[in-house]
């Protein structure tokens, strides 16, 4: 019997596993994604974790978001890593000594990275409040609202490098899908040598199979891009003039639009005007369709601003705009066809683990980080879109596949999309959190 059709006993076991994982990863005011691979606070991890915590520890969910936004930069950016000062120097690479964010005038007093991640935080705040509409929760929402607005302002104003109304990412890490095949073409232009890595000790391959992680050449390119941004003082002015990586990502900008929809709801609760948020949400969706939708494939593709071309790789990034409530019906229908194709699902159904990359592609790698494996956060976003656009049967199939993965392998970081084997960290925060959210929603 699969977890998707299991009885109360199995579902109770899954809830207990998820809660134990989150409790084990709690670190005084936030949840680490993993005690081994990721011992600090990560930005979009905390947002997903808050969504799950709202079902079992709502006060902790608000602390999760508050602690992250205390590290917000003066320019509005929310850093993708907030470093734990209690961790010994060298315990994680690249650490504060590599980022050296003190070179930036806008940086906070605490040690952080200088990059961002997809802005799913406003959506998280709204979902936590919806689960916990207490006076204390409303007060927490009121504290977060101006910070969320500042985050959006930073992304929509300073990161609109292409001038078309979308935010550009300046590093693959900002997409959240670190070494997706979507970044192969833009990364190929980044000058770096694999030998660069001899000067550093990678933290990830000390805790995970190197065959499942990015290559040394990819990592050298990641460091080269960070160094270019850092040496420019993490300033966004002049990016178009020579930054080595500039891409408009469909997932990142779908999250940007979702944030405006969430902020409209938050504004209404707080007595502010939701109109400007709704208008900005509409403009972002329009820009996504105009700039990133490929009519030939029916899906969304990243736009490499260095070349002016759409990236052809068909990855799960292209399905993310399905989560937008105002996505036109033509694009919704095309994305549903893509999601149910042999590339991502089973013809006409969604009850097979959702891969991060086209299963039919010759370079599909079911074991390597973001180049094939299944991740619960991406399945959660696509399921959110299926429910938004009234595809309950498909959403139910995707839910069953998510529950089955964890029932068989535990709260792993990611999973083999065919065998269901657990990969990466064995006790991963957002897997546990989103499991709790899916368990609470039986649609």
Automatic annotation (TrEMBL):
Superkingdom, taxonomy of origin: Bacteria
Protein name (database record): Mannosylglycerate hydrolase MGH1-like glycoside hydrolase domain-containing protein
Molecular function per GO: Glc3Man9GlcNAc2 oligosaccharide glucosidase activity
One of the Pfam families matching this protein, by short name: MGH1-like_GH
UniProt family annotation: Belongs to the glycosyl hydrolase 63 family.
Domain Mannosylglycerate hydrolase MGH1-like glycoside hydrolase: start-end pairs: 38-431
Keywords annotated in UniProt: Glycosidase, Hydrolase
GO BP terms: oligosaccharide metabolic process; protein N-linked glycosylation
């Amino acid at each position: 019997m699969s977890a998707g059709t299991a009885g109360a006993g199995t579902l109770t076991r899954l809830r207990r596993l998820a809660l134990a994982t989150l409790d084990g990863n709690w670190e005084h005011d936030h949840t680490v994604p993993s005690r081994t691979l990721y011992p600090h606070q990560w930005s979009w991890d905390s947002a997903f974790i808050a969504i799950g915590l709202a079902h079992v520890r709502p006060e902790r969910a608000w602390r999760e978001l508050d602690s992250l936004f205390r590290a917000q930069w003066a320019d509005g950016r929310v850093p993708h890593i907030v470093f734990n000062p209690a961790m010994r120097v060298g315990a994680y690479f690249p650490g504060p000594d590599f980022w050296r964010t003190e070179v930036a005038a806008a940086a906070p007093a605490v040690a952080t990275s200088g990059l961002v991640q997809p802005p799913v935080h406003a959506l998280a705040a709204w979902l936590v409040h919806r689960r916990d509409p207490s006076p204390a929760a409303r007060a927490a929402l009121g504290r977060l609202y101006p910070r969320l607005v500042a985050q959006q302002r930073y992304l929509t104003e300073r990161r609109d490098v292409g001038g078309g109304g979308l935010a550009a990412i300046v590093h693959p890490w900002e997409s959240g899908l670190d070494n997706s095949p979507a970044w192969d073409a833009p990364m190929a232009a980044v000058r770096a040598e694999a030998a660069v890595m001899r000067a550093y000790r990678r933290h990830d391959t000390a805790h995970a199979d190197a065959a499942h992680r990015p290559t040394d050449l990819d990592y050298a390119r990641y460091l080269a891009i960070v160094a270019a941004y850092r040496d420019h003082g993490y300033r966004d002015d002049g990016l178009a003039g020579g930054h080595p990586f500039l891409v408009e990502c469909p997932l990142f900008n779908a999250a940007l639009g979702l944030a405006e929809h969430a902020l409209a709801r938050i504004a209404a609760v707080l007595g502010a005007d939701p109109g400007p948020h709704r208008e900005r949400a509409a403009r972002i969706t329009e820009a996504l369709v105009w700039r990133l939708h490929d009519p030939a494939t029916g899906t969304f593709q990243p736009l490499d601003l260095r070349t002016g071309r759409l990236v052809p790789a068909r990855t799960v990034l292209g399905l993310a705009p399905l989560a937008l409530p105002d996505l036109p019906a033509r694009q919704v229908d095309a994305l549903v066809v893509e999601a149910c194709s042999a590339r991502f699902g089973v013809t006409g159904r969604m009850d097979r683990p959702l891969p991060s990359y086209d299963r039919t592609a010759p370079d599909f790698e079911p074991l390597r980080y973001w180049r094939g494996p299944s991740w619960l956060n991406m399945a959660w976003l696509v399921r959110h879109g299926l429910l938004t656009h009234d595809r309950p049967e498909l959403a139910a199939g995707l839910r069953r596949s998510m529950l089955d993965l964890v029932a068989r392998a535990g709260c792993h970081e990611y999973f083999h999309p065919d065998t269901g084997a657990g990969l990466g960290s064995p006790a991963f925060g957002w897997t546990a959190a989103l499991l709790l959210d899916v368990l609470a929603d039986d649609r």
